[in-house]
Amino acid sequence: MNNQAQQSVWDVSSSYVEWGIKRSLREYVLGTEDGTIEWVAPASERRFPAHEIINRAAVDELCGVFEGSVRFRAHGSLMDVAVGSISVEIGSMGAAISIAGISSGTFAEHEGSVRRIQVNGVIEILIEHPALTSRGAAFLGGVYTRGTLLDPLRLVLALEPHPHPARAIAPEPGQRSLTWKTKEKP
């Protein structure tokens, strides 16, 4: 028998993460003479669409990758920070948030459980108190310190079965997993 496990693929085109990063950062940037906040497509006003969601039910983990970015500029572009390609990993012990630009380590973390609500095929997960890591604080130029609380992060997963089966993938021994991803573009 083949030792590869079948994964289910789901369309997540209606799923997203909603996150304003840090309210005081937005207020500061917009309070400067030339400050701008630019939401780079496919992101829009605090909403980053899902690219891929992986659920490893056997180990109670969920990982999501979200597209687009937000760019904060001020002081003649002396301040120029882009937060994008957000990846969120949720496990039984908490959550980790990674972004493009930090090659190893995480941008923010949340210790403890997260709130999960499921209604009519929509799963909402709220990470109420993500806190900057030392790498996240450095990425923001040291304006904030490690442990600074960020805005709550909300995942909305509206899952619809995708009509095509996934290709077989060999999981870790004893591990089952489920993968959701956006439909391939023609």
Salient structural properties:
single chain, two-stranded antiparallel ribbon, 2 helices, 44% strand, disordered N terminus, disordered C terminus
Account of the protein in words:
The chain is mainly β. The chain has one domain. It has helices spanning 23-31, 134-139; strands at residues 10-11, 16-18, 36-40, 47-56, 61-74, 79-91, 94-98, 108-111, 115-119, 122-127, 131-132, 153-158, 160-161, 178-181. Strands 2, 3, 4, 5, 6, 7, 8, 9, 10, 11, 12 and 14 form a twelve-stranded antiparallel sheet that branches. The longest helix is centred in the first third of the chain and has 9 residues, at 23-31.
The helix count comes to 2
Largest sheet: 12 strands, antiparallel
- The helix/strand class is mainly beta
Helix content bin: under 10%
Which percent range describes the beta-strand content? 35-45%
The topology string of helices and strands comes to EEHEEEEEEEEEHEEE
Indicate the radius of gyration in whole angstroms.
Answer: 18 Å
Average pLDDT figure? 81
Low-confidence stretches: 1-9, 163-186
Q: Separation of termini? A: 34 Å
Count of domain modules: 1
Quick overview:
The chain is mainly beta. The protein is built from 2 helices and 14 strands, in the order ββαβββββββββαβββ.
